[in-house]
Write a structure and sequence with these properties.
Layout (H helix, E strand, L loop, with lengths): L12 H13 L2 H12 L7 E3 L2 E3 L7 H34 L4 H14 L4
Antiparallel strand pairs: 1-2
Helix pairs in contact: 2-3
Length: 117
């Protein structure tokens, strides 16, 4: 099931708290995307000070909470995918360690095909 088709569970204080914690742990870039989602609704009141932006999530429209929920899970899916790819890359590095000889051999092959005047 893709993130876009994922149905948000019933809205509870536990879900809102879980979403809040996930957002707090996100990178600044992803937090700014959440802020962009919030700003897309003109009815949302944002409270901002030098410590950050604060909202009352219990007062947000359900549609906005769904958008945030989907984005949170999209970010989690991407992080898991990246972690899986890094593990695979590390396995490949063990199986096929980098070699200076390999780079030299490729350069030698390339030079054979070069046109010399």
């Amino acid at each position: 099931m893709t993130t876009a088709t994922m149905k948000m569970p019933e809205l509870t204080t536990e879900l809102l708290d879980s979403m809040k914690t996930s957002i707090e742990r996100m990178s600044k870039t992803n937090q700014l995307m959440i802020l962009h989602i919030l700003k897309s609704n003109l009815m949302v009141k944002l409270n901002e000070n030098k410590s950050g932006v604060f909202i009352n999530m219990a007062c947000l429209p359900v549609e906005l909470l769904q958008n945030m929920y989907h984005f949170i899970h999209y970010v989690k899916d991407q992080e898991q995918l990246l972690q899986t790819m890094e593990v695979e890359r590390d396995k490949m590095a063990i199986l096929f360690p980098p070699s200076e000889d390999r780079g030299l051999a490729l350069q030698t092959e390339w030079n054979q095909f070069s046109v010399h005047e």
